[in-house]
Amino acid sequence: MGELTVSAVALDFGGTLSSSPGASPHGRDVVAALECLDWPCPTGLDDAVDSLRTNAQSAYRRGVHTPWESILAAAWLQVDAVLPDMAVVAEVLWRMVPDAVIDPRSAQAVRELRRSGRRLVLACNTQRPIAHRRRTLAAAELADCFDALVLSSEIGTCVPQLSVDIVGVAV
Prior knowledge:
Blueprint: E1 8-11, H1 27-37, H2 45-61, H3 68-78, H4 86-96, H5 104-115, E2 119-124, H6 130-139, E3 148-151, H7 152-155, E4 166-169
Helix pairs in contact: 1-2, 1-4, 2-3
């Protein structure tokens, strides 16, 4: 078998670029987001969010992705309240719940891979919207390093879990 030329590299976020995937919101964070918006908070919403979040985490372990907007909408319906603009709530929520910080050594490795001419893809399971993950990459000066971002929050399904974090693809 001949030598394999690696021209593309897929990287995970949590455990590869950062030591963790970043925080996930809780019911208390949703309440805080509503307070920031000066919007009313239905009684029991925090508990409903936490219960649905737990269900979503169980589904995630089976490879099913549940968008945060779905969790929020279901929580509002569970407490029999009028649904607010979920996009606004989600935007404020994700601004309040910080993403993980990219390790400087990982950032340097990404830059070196990019300089070597390889195509880079960030492929990760996250409920975080792509705009927020892009901000995290920009904060580490990696915004222009990736040819594509494949986030489960965007494609609606979980990225397969691999036994290694970096996978080379011959193209």
